[in-house]
Amino acid sequence: MHFSVFLLLPLLLYLPVPVTCYSDYQCDSINTSTGNYTANSTYQSNLNSLFSALKSNSTGSGFAAGRFGTVPNQVSGLLLCRGDTNASTCSSCLSQIFTDILTTCPLYKTAMMWDDLCYFEFSNQDFLSSTDNLPLDTQINENNVTVDQTQFFQDTAKLMSDMASWAINNSSKFFATGEVRNFSNKLSSIYGLLQCTPNLAKSQCKSCLQSLINQLTIASEGRDGAWLVGPYCNIRYDTAPFYDGVAMVKVDGAPPSPNLAPVLPSGVNDEMINSEQNQANIDSFLISLSTLKAATINFNESNKLGEGGFGAVYKGTLPSGQEVAVKRLSQSSSQGLEELKNELVLVAKLKHKNLVRVVGVCLEAQEKLLVYEFLPNRSLDIFLFDKERRQELDWIKRLAIINGIARGLQYLHEDSQLKIIHRDLKASNILLDSDMDPKISDFGLARLFPVDQTVHVTRRIVGTFGYMAPEYAMHGRYSIKSDVFSFGVLLLEIVTGKRCCGSFDTEMSEDLLGSTWEQWTAGTITNIIDPFMDCPTNEIIRYIHIGLLCVQEDLKDRPRMSEVVIMLGSNTVSLQVPSKPAFYLRRGGGVSCDGSHKNLVPVSQNELTISEFEPR
């Protein structure tokens, strides 16, 4: 047998807190069924031994995590007691929760249960190798906030932010309690609590907590108390005290301010785009129409950089001398204003070297203008699909472009305070700076994605065929794995110099994915490599391999972007064998990768077709 336990911290004693209030559980995995074990089996014996060892080793810290046994009967587990419990209360809570979880989730190989004072999770899957804060459970009070909700959630968010800072810098348990005092004449205080598992790095704890804080306003549904809890961090607030002792962090109630609460994009709720908070955020970026007219010489055709899905883009120079690109939405576009606001609110919150930076916005006299940094080399497609300019993209430049896009997507999906699905990643939305470094642009279709969800379903299919993942194009199901699919298509385009959609001059033409797969299985993959590149064959074949892993039909088979970044950066990481990708066959035309319209018959291996399509 093998057993390992890590991060056992010194004991901090607090007064006992009665076990009351919340209790919840989940049997089996949120993503896939892990099956059941049989009574008196090796797995059950390992589970019992694991819990006993974890409980014993958590004395003094309230936390332990580890594994017991060997595959296929190895059990991984994690337990955590609330930071203000003493050893006796912690032990009692854990004993009770283990008894309850075996009764509530009988013979399940994966289960988790949490109540007011402790948390326990176990699985036959090695979830300890990741710090994803899943599954995430949200519990809310029955009563709505009876005072000014804007001020209430601004002050609650400020409290959570201050508590997070205190917990990370002052507590070995990454734990803090807090109170907003003198909130209003109707409500005396708001009480808060948050905690991370102490095995996280400070930066990981900060990111985990910030992700929950960003979701708090929506997840709480306007109630006067809520608790967002996952295995690695949790936050909670209430208008009634629920912890023992004096608050570690105290905040005085403040007047309403749009900058205190996190601004959440419209992807979670379309009505949010018109909310007071979002409007305040937009106001801070306003640039006058007269300024932009002067910058672009009244939108002169000589300054026109190109035509996008919602209108034209112009080069301009602001009075400060800063060069900018001005996106001018078509006045006939009924949906343009919403996309513009969505892009502004999203991108203003995102800071990464591989994302385009927003400078400002103008909403005057029927004009809808978005202003962002000017990138002199314009978009990737201008180089990649032109026989002459493609020669400027040697293998070193293409490597940098591929890796930069991958890091930008990883930030959107996993490293930013918000979890963003781009939904329209393609060559024309990758802009290049003076050094040919890539920046992901055009967030008009992007959506904030709740951290506790893996897949979202929409009836409004938007984006560009050829880059669309099959589950999204056919069923409206999108996730971070949809963007991974688009990245795989883009990677193959960069390597081959061919558009994803192939040609449209034949009765039936196969797209890039189909032709790549044929060459891969035939052992002739070098036939599709762009002949303009002088590159190491083994290295480029590895990149094609990674691209094929990203475009597999089953989204569960596609890697996450963090895994893609690792694979791209190391020749020693072993790669799985890819399965046949999803691809489309087109009869008599289609929708080209630049978004232009042709008659389209999308076909997958099961020959399902799209019933609803709203193109860029």
Task: Tell me what the structure shows.
30% of the residues lie in helices and 19% in strands. The protein has 616 residues and is α+β, with helices and mostly antiparallel strands. It folds into four domains: 3-129, Killer Toxin P4, Chain A (2-Layer Sandwich); 137-252, Killer Toxin P4, Chain A, CATH 3.30.430.20; 270-373, Phosphorylase Kinase, domain 1 (2-Layer Sandwich), CATH 3.30.200.20; 380-587, Transferase(Phosphotransferase), domain 1 (Orthogonal Bundle). Helix 3 (149-170) packs antiparallel against helix 4 and helix 9 runs antiparallel to helix 14. The chain starts with a strand and ends in a 29-residue tail after the last strand. Mean pLDDT is 78; it is low at 1-22, 255-275, 502-509 and 584-616.
List the uncertain runs: 1-22, 255-275, 502-509, 584-616
* Count of discrete domains: 4
What is the approximate shape?
Answer: flat
In angstroms, what separates the terminal alpha carbons? 57 Å
In CATH, the topology of the largest domain is named: Transferase(Phosphotransferase), domain 1
Q: Number of helix segments? A: 14
Helices and strands: which structural class?
Answer: alpha+beta
- Measured by DSSP, the beta-strand proportion falls in 15-25%
Radius of gyration: 26 Å
Order of strands across the biggest sheet? 1-3-4-6-5-2
| CATH homologous superfamily label of the largest domain | Transferase(Phosphotransferase) domain 1
Number of DSSP strand runs: 25
Report the biggest beta sheet as strand number plus sense, adding barrel if it closes: 6 strands, antiparallel
Task: Output mean pLDDT.
Answer: 78
Helix percent reads 25-40%
Which CATH class of the largest domain? Mainly Alpha
